[in-house]
Amino acid sequence: MRAAPVRVYIEGIGVWSPGLEDWARTSAVLRGEAPFKPEAVPLPSPAVLPAAERRRSPATARIAVQVASEACGHAGNDASLLPSVFASSHGDTEISDYLCRELAGNAPLSPTKFHNSVHNAASGYWTIAVGCMQSATALSGGDESFAYGLLEAGLQAVGSSRPVLLVAYDHAAPAPLSSVCSISRTFGVAFVLSPVVTPHSIALVELRDPDQRARDAVMLAPELLSLHSGNPAARALPLLSCLAAARAATLSVSPLCLEITPCR
Amino acid sequence: MQPVNVRHYTAVCAAGRGRTALWDSLATGCSGLAPNDLPGVSLQTHVGRVRGLEESPLPAEFAEWDCRNNRLALLALQQDGMEDAVIALRERFGPRRIAVVLGTSTGSIGSTEEAYRLRDNDLELPVAYRQPFVHSPYSLVDFVRRYLRLEGPAFCISTACSSSARVFGSAERLLRLGLADAVLVGGTDTLCQSVLYGFNSLELMSPEACRPFDVARQGLSLGEGSGFALLERGTGDGIVLLGYGETSDAHHMSSPHPEGLGARRAMEQALASADLDTTAIDYVNLHGTATRLNDQIEGEAMRTLFKSPVACSSVKGWTGHTLGAAGIVEAVCSLLSMTHGFVPQTLNCTEVEPRFKDYVRTAPSRESLRTVMSNSFGFGGNNCSLIFGMTP
In angstroms, rounded to a whole number, what is the distance separating the alpha carbons of residues B101 and B87? Predict the structure, then answer.
C-alpha cells in the first residue's frame, strides 16, 4: 500500500526568534520589506501563561507557548480543543546544562527544574495554560525535527479529521554543551493545520513521498540562511518564505517533499 | 480503528532479558529490584538495574552512538529474534517502507552527566565524550535505524513516562495512512543520576522496594528497560493492537489531575477507538507507580470508569518505574499475561488500599484473558492507554 499525499491547510502561523518577534514581522522580513536584525532580546512573555507559570517555565516553554498562542489567534481556533504536536531536536539545553552542572558539583537539584527537564515540558505548560485536555505529543527527529513534527501533526489532522496544532522550537545550546550540539540560534514556529479548507486557510501543503524530487529552491538572504542552518526548527524558513510571498512551490524539507499552494 | 497486527515483541528489564525470563519472573513472583548500588549515587532506595551493560559496548562501527541507553536497546533487539524479524520485513517490504518510532525520556543524558563531571573547562566536553550523536534525545532512534538499516520515517516520542506507549498511536497512523508497511515501535530508558536525584528532590522515592497500591506505600523505585514491537497492517493469527487513547491533564507539571480525569479520558478514548465497552476488558496493567498520588487517582479513575470491578495490577514491584520505557515494558508484560492466561499480582502490595480492594490483585491467578489494557501516565500531565487483544 502506497501513501496518498497527506494534505493539510495552514490556518494560522506563529513565529518567534530574536529579530522575528511575530508572523507579521517575519513575513515582512522574508518578503524583503523589512531588515532582519537578530539582536539579543528578552524572552517572550506570552499572555496566556499565568505569572507564576511564566516564572517557573523554561525558555523553550515560553517560546513555544508564544508561537502557539499566535498561531491559534490567527486561525481563530479554540486552543483548548486542539490536539498538539511539539517538535524539538534537543529540547531545553539550558535545563540539561543546569542538571549536569549541579550533579557534577554534587549540588541538590531544584524539583521545578527537574520536572522542566522532560522533553514535553513546553507541551505541558501549553496544555495547562490553555486548559487543553486533548492529546499533546512531544517528539525529536534530530535535525529533521520540524519535518517529523509536520508529518506527525499532518497524520493526526488527516487521521482524525480535525485541526491540530504544530509547534517546533529549539534553543541555542550553552557551553560546554555547544561543543557537541550545533544549535547556535533560538527559533520557534507554530502552525494550526486543518484537514479541510476553511475561511482562514492560508495555503494547502501536501506532504509527499520523499522519493519525489523537489523542483524549487527558496533563496534565503545570508543572515536568514545562518538561522536556517543554526536551528532545526528554522528548517521551516523556506516554507514560511513561500507563505509570506503567497507563492506556490515544491520544496524539499528533509526528509519530506512539500507541495505548497496558496489559498488567497 | 482497524486492529493492527503485533507481529513480534520483546523486552529487557531488571526482571528478565527477553520474554521467557520475564515471564518466569512474573509467574514466580521474583522481583528485579535490589538495594541501590549505582556508582556515584548515595541514595537509600531500590533500583531495577539491568546487569552487564557496563561491559557490553556497541560494535566498533557504532562507537559514535555508544552509551548505556543504546547498549540496552541493542540488548533488547537481540532477544527473541527481534533483530531477525525486522530484517525479514526489511527484505520483504524494502528499507524505506519500515518506520521506526521509539520512546525515551532520559535518553542518553547519563553520558552527558559523566562528561560534565569529567570536564576540565567550561567551554568544551572532554574529548572522549564529544559524541554529538549521543548527547541528543534523537540518539536512540538514530542508532536503531542505522543499526537495522531502516530508511522509513524515524522519530522519537519523548513525553516522559508515557513515551513508549504513545509510539503505538503514531505507528497506527503511519500504517493506516500508508506511509509505512511495518513500524518498529518501542523504547528505552536507563538509570542515571538526574532521574534518581530528580525524583528524590520531588520526594517521590521509596527507601524500600516500591509497593504499588499498598496502604503503606512510600513512593516509587526507579528502573531501566527496553522493549520493541513490530507492527503491521491487518490481523495475523496472534496479538493485535485494538485501540489507544492519548490525553492531557491540563493541571500540573508533576502532579496528576486530582480526580484522575486525564487518565480516565485516556482509557475512555482507548475503549472508543477499539469500539469496546469496559465489560470487554479482562485485565488492566496499571501505571501503578506506588506514589501516594498516582495510585490514588488511578484507582479512583478505575472505580469511576469500570463500574463492575476488573482484574488489575501494577508490575512495577518487578521492574521498577522504567520511565520512558514503561509503556513498552508494560505492554510486553500485558501481552505475556494474555498469552499465558495469567493475572500477575501487584508484587509487594500486602494490604491494598481499601477503596481499591475489589480491583487491585494481591495474588496471582490463572484466567482466560482475551483483551487487556495497559496504562501509562507522565509528567506534563501526559496520558496514554493501550488495548490489546487476541485473534481470531
Answer: 16
